[in-house]
Write a structure and sequence with these properties.
The structure is a homodimer. The first copy, chain A, is an alpha/beta fold. The first copy, chain A, has two domains: about 5-270, Alpha-Beta Complex (Spore Coat Polysaccharide Biosynthesis Protein SpsA, Chain A); about 285-359, no CATH class. The first copy, chain A, is about 30% helix and about 25% strand. In chain A, strands 6-9-7-8-10 form a five-stranded mixed barrel. Chain A has a four-stranded mixed sheet with strand order 12-14-16-17, covered by helices on one side. A two-stranded antiparallel sheet of chain A has the order 5-11. In chain A, strand 16 and strand 17 (about 330-335) form a beta hairpin. In chain A, helix 3 (about 85-100) runs parallel beside helix 7 (about 215-230) and helix 6 packs across helix 7. The longest helix of chain A has 15 residues, at about 85-100. The model of chain A has no long low-confidence stretch (mean pLDDT about 95). The interface between A and B is large, with 36 and 36 residues.
């Protein structure tokens, strides 16, 4: 039995504007100064999944960047989506390919743009999940132990001891909950049996394809020709049709919430989805005034700021606090740190006002 | 009797960083979108002093910019200081030149970088001052009716009715006061007989030269060779020595505070010294959220900001309030509006840290 990683790298991450652009999405950015998020995602699998068994699913416009950033990943492992259709078609594609290559494959599905601080603990968690995923019809996900009543994540309620006493084990999932309001999120936290939905899944390729067959038969059927043509010159010919025929739906809605046997392993390994600039600020080293500064930056009477300057410009802050300043060649964002979630609205505004050159 | 304007344009205005630079000082900037400050200073004299009788005193490095910005001012009226030595030598130079050209000249000395909203009232005020300056040994200044207990200006106390009842007249000056602390400024305002020192002076050329002779004899002596060589090929030869020998002192300290017959005309014509970005914000038109935006700027959930972008960059503010954002080709300032006075400290810092390329 071999384990494969399927890294989903088709998103744009518009809350990272102006650094993230349609041509340069978040997962290809060097957010923390060492490597890009996708490079780190592959690197932290070392010892568990070698690059030759990593598959990257991305939009075809990002194939070249993916090759350049991940030279150790074989070219045939870079799966190009002709159109973006949410996660269910993406997973059906990867599942079909893996079934064709290795009928005994187990898949670890990971977002390309998350950050994990405790890699050893992450591996231990995945080992438990991989083992649990060998049981018949079983889909496994990782649920993050919540640190606060976040409203930006979905939640997973499980059957088992409360989080403080939970073991590193695969517990039955009771319900998936949508992103809650604050009051609901607080209730979830208080109840002690809710975890954050991390978007990480572990299952056998044959299991997920069976479950797609049961719960999303159109997606399953759409990708059967891909499975048959996998790794042949015909694959590209049938791929576009498969994506067009497949319903545009997430794997969470399409399968996880409908499946009978879903298990969750509580994860506690310093996880962040690096969801916005505030998250980057929180993850970065800071000076004695709480400033995290990247580039040529001078601060005067200023504290708890995040500044990132791409180019040779001098950036000066005077009397500023709790502010995010990000500049690129053609755009500048100045944002209150508590408002960084709203940056995605700016990108929508740019699209709506014929300012696509800045998106 | 002819009236001349002597416009002092040798400063840098470092509180206007990053727009103002050593190579492009504040007076040469187009701050309000119509013309540069020095162009406005000359233009608002129309009807009182024609450009042919305007003299511009500036550092020699700014002579070319002055010519380009003020084509109606004759070249021989652009007086180049070889070194910057505060206002007393500057005025001695202009006084010596004017004495040589017109022994009956009256001088209006004006800073190049102020803003005046009510030009008609400004002219009326100057007419009163010009008339008062014809009396023997009399130096006249304009005192601005204060609107708040500012700590950034010197004050002038006069003998006469309290400001509310004062006529447009030249009142005897009792004292000049340095920039006060807040408590002192409040006391000044409450007393009703203090005005802001505007740095505008009106006197006959022979009067100021006599007063220099009495109170700053070294400055007077230094510029006698300039007077003798005025408008001849020898002028440049003696000029450097004159500036070197003249004491480095302001006309306020050197003459005004020591002279016996000083009068002040209260001015109420919508004056601003445009001293920092906050002052620019206050003078600019604003949208319904109190934002004054120059360039390609998008604001979201933001109010009372001043944004100025020189180039094609898109600037986006999210959740920001009471903030100044000024960007140029090579530098960006983000400054709390209440901290704009501190911008000059940044320029000092740049000088002290071998970052002169940004000054």
């Amino acid at each position: 039995m071999a384990t494969y990683a399927v890294i989903m790298a088709g998103g744009i991450g518009s809350r990272f504007w102006p650094a993230s652009r349609k041509a340069r999405p978040k997962q290809f950015l060097n957010v923390f100064g060492d490597a890009t998020l996708i490079q780190n995602t592959v690197a932290r699998l070392q010892g568990l999944v070698p690059p030759e068994r990593c598959l990257i699913v991305t939009h075809e416009r990002y194939v070249q960047q993916t090759k350049e950033q991940l030279p150790a990943v074989p070219e045939e492992n870079i799966l190009a989506e002709p159109i973006s259709r949410n996660t269910a078609p993406c997973i059906a594609y990867a599942g079909a390919k893996l079934q064709a290559r290795d009928k005994d494959a187990t898949m670890i599905v990971l977002p390309a743009d998350h950050m994990i601080q405790n890699v050893q603990r992450f591996h231990e968690t995945l080992h438990v999940a991989i083992e649990a995923a060998q049981a018949p019809e079983t889909l496994v996900t990782i649920g993050i132990q919540p640190t606060h009543p976040a409203t930006g994540y979905g939640y997973i309620q499980y059957d088992g001891p409360s989080i403080d006493e939970a073991a590193l084990d695969a517990y039955p999932v009771r319900t998936f909950a949508e992103k809650p309001d604050v009051a609901t999120a607080e209730r979830f936290i208080d109840s002690g049996d809710f975890l954050w939905n991390s978007g990480m899944f572990i299952w056998r390729a044959d299991t997920i394809m069976e479950q797609l067959h049961t719960h999303l038969p159109k997606a399953y059927e759409a990708f059967q020709p891909v499975r048959e043509a996998a790794d042949t010159p015909e694959e590209q010919e049938v791929l576009h049709t498969a994506f067009q025929e497949s319903p545009r739906i997430s794997i969470d809605y399409g399968v996880m919430e409908r499946a009978d046997t879903v298990r969750v392993v509580p994860g506690d390994f310093g996880w962040s989805d690096v969801g916005d600039w505030r998250a980057v600020y929180e993850l970065r080293d800071k000076d004695e005034h709480g400033n995290a500064l990247e580039g040529q930056v001078i601060v005067h009477d200023s504290s708890r700021n995040y500044v990132q300057s791409d180019d040779d410009r001098l950036v000066v802050l005077v009397g500023m606090h709790d502010t995010v300043v990000v500049e690129t060649d053609d755009a500048l964002l100045v944002c209150k740190r508590e408002s960084t979630q709203q940056v995605k609205n700016v990108v929508e505004y740019l699209h709506a006002h014929q300012l696509d050159e800045y998106t």
